[in-house]
Amino acid sequence: SQKYGYNMIFVLSFFWVLIFIFFLHFYFIHYPIDSARSYSFGFKQAVQKIAEIEGQYSKVVMTNLREPPLIYYIFWSKTDPKYLQEYGLNFSTDKILGKKLDKYKIFDPKIGEIELNTLYLLTPDELPKDVRIIDTIKYPDNEVSFYIVCCRFTL
């Protein structure tokens, strides 16, 4: 009877360790890949790339197809929120205050004409065919999250 109890403890402990190993595997290997879309993956990488090259462009236009990108820009570029507060509730493409954030514009999913000297952050669904792709931001599973593009190619 005592031998049976030790065997049962060993079997239960083995299964507990096995389940714990599976949990760790799924949590650290699969979960970051499977949940990347739910946690707005790609904005950090996009903002870091935009921050590197934004000085070459007069305007930066970001899509709001997935989520409002301005909050991610403010956070990842370490911009002081007081600059956004100066715009009030209406941060629109028409509001120009002569401030740093005048350069950044948000657009609805239907992109119109691609402007010269403008940097765009687009999703794969919005990408026009004849633009120059500067960078591609991918999810951990290698699917494209965003494209950073500029001017159209000229023939």
Describe the structure.
By secondary structure, this protein is α/β, with parallel strands linked by helices. The protein has helices at residues 2-34, 43-53, 69-76, 81-85; strands at residues 59-63, 104-107, 118-122, 131-138, 144-152. A hairpin with a 5-residue loop joins strand 4 (131-138) and strand 5. The longest helix is centred in the N-terminal third of the chain and has 33 residues, at 2-34. The N and C termini lie far apart (87 Å).
Features:
elongated; 5 strands; alpha/beta; single chain; 5-stranded mixed sheet; about 20% strand
Q: How would you classify the helix and strand content by structural class?
A: alpha/beta
- Give a quick account of the main beta sheet: strands, pairing sense, barrel closure: 5 strands, mixed
Mean pLDDT: 84
Span from first to last CA?
87 Å
Determine the oligomeric state from the structure: single chain
Q: Give the DSSP E fraction (strand runs of 2 or more residues).
A: 15-25%
